[in-house]
Structure formats: structure tokens, C-alpha cells
Automatic annotation (TrEMBL):
PANTHER family, per the entry: BIOTIN TRANSPORTER BIOY
Organism of provenance: Terrabacter lapilli
Name of protein: Biotin transporter
Major localization listed first in the record, in broad terms: membrane
InterPro entries: BioY (IPR003784)
UniProt membrane topology term: Multi-pass membrane protein
Localization per record: Cell membrane
Length: 229
């Protein structure tokens, strides 16, 4: 039996508490909040490390502009698709800050703010926005649609994000830093597009597998928040 006998506080101005149910109801909430915070920090750290690892893998040079094909876009899209907009944005932002302060975490071991004057600047800047956009799309799709629609909808969202965000800003970076005309910048960018679209498919398949195995990452997160209210 649960003892609901009132417990008087030593301070006469504080209200009385009841044993059992009141205390038991309060305890899980605090514990759950600590768990969610720890999970968020861990996921951000893990995916920041993934972004670094993807940049460390040697890229394949394409053309003469110094922009290699790397696994970075795959890692960025996977981060957004798995973590959602906020945590993915934090992971990519942390990755960029690590590189800007001098750690060799960009492609070909580059680091520092000087990369923003190079040919890859537009692509680097696009990573943060791409993670936010595809992360928001992933959160909406996973929480509001049937599982059978996850792959086609997420592939579509990833394709649109890749073209409209990553490659559009990449072209702008080529135009600004290399002073290329628009047509020349688009021509320089096009060889990267088929590979990035293929990487989008790989990222979606991997992210859907993660969410089916661990639905708490995004699917059940909203339900737990509403329950605490």
C-alpha cells in the first residue's frame, strides 16, 4: 500500500507534501530531463566526430579548381536526417568552429578562416543550412507520415536540399572567390551533382534504418515532451 500521510515541512510557510504518489510522480520527470539532455549532447558529439572523419578521408580531385569529391556531404545529410534541425545544426556548427579555430578538420587537412576565401567556401557555408533544412524535413516526415512513405519523401527532401542549398551556395562561392561567371561556375559544379545525389540515397537508407531501430531519436521525442506537460 502507498502511504499518503501528509508530511509537514520544518518551515511553517511551506505547504505540506504527501508521501508516495506525489514524490513518485515528481522523480521520473527530473530523471527523464537529465536523460534527454545527456542523449542530445552525446548525439551532437558523435555526429561532429562523424563529420570530422568524413573530411579526413582523402577526396577525389575533380577539375582544376581544387574542389575534391569527399564524403562530407554524405555526413552532413545523414546528420540532419538522423538528428533533426536543432541538434544537427549544433553538430555542424561545432564542426565548422573546430576548423575555423585551427584544427585540420576540413578536406585535405585545411583549417582556419582562410578557407572562406578558397573555392570550397560556399560548400562549407552550405553545410550548416543544409543540415537545418533536411533536419526539419526529416522531423516533419517521420512524425507525420507513414513508414512506407519515409524513404521516397526523405530522398526528395534530400535531393532538393542538395541542389537548392549545397550546390547553389557552392556556385556562389566559386563566383565570389574565383571570380567565375555564372555559367562557368555551374559547369565547374555539375560534376559533383550525380555523386552527391547518390550519397543522398545512401544517407536516407541509413537514417531510416536508424529511426526504425531507435524511434526515440525523433519519432517519439514529441510524445515524451507532451507527456511531461
Amino acid at each position: 500500500m502507498t502511504d499518503n500521510t501528509p508530511v509537514r515541512s520544518a518551515d511553517p510557510h511551506l505547504p505540506s507534501m504527501t508521501r508516495g504518489s506525489d514524490l513518485e510522480a515528481a522523480t521520473p520527470v527530473a530523471t527523464d530531463r537529465r536523460g534527454v539532455d545527456a542523449q542530445a549532447v552525446s548525439l551532437v558529439a558523435v555526429f561532429t566526430a562523424l563529420l570530422v572523419a568524413a573530411a579526413v578521408v582523402p577526396g577525389i580531385p575533380v577539375g582544376g579548381l581544387g574542389v575534391p569529391i569527399t564524403l562530407q556531404t554524405l555526413a552532413v545529410m545523414l546528420t540532419g536526417l538522423v538528428l533533426g534541425p536543432v541538434r544537427a545544426g549544433l553538430a555542424v556548427l561545432l564542426y565548422l568552429l573546430l576548423g575555423f579555430v585551427g584544427l585540420p578538420v576540413f578536406s585535405r587537412g585545411q583549417s582556419g578562416l582562410q578557407v572562406l576565401s578558397g573555392p570550397t567556401a560556399g560548400y562549407l557555408v552550405s553545410f550548416l543550412l543544409a543540415a537545418l533544412v533536411v533536419g526539419l524535413a526529416a522531423r516533419l516526415v517521420l512524425r507525420r507520415t507513414r513508414r512506407t512513405l519515409w524513404v521516397p519523401l526523405l530522398v526528395t527532401a534530400s535531393f532538393v536540399t542538395t541542389v537548392v542549398v549545397v550546390h547553389a551556395l557552392g556556385v556562389v562561392g566559386l563566383m565570389v572567390n574565383l571570380r567565375l561567371p555564372l555559367q562557368a561556375a555551374i559547369t565547374a559544379d555539375l560534376p559533383f551533382l550525380p555523386g552527391d545525389l547518390l550519397k543522398d540515397v545512401v544517407a536516407v537508407v541509413a537514417a531510416v534504418a536508424v529511426h526504425r531501430a531507435f524511434p526515440d531519436v525523433l519519432v517519439r521525442q514529441a510524445r515524451r515532451a507532451s507527456t511531461r506537460r
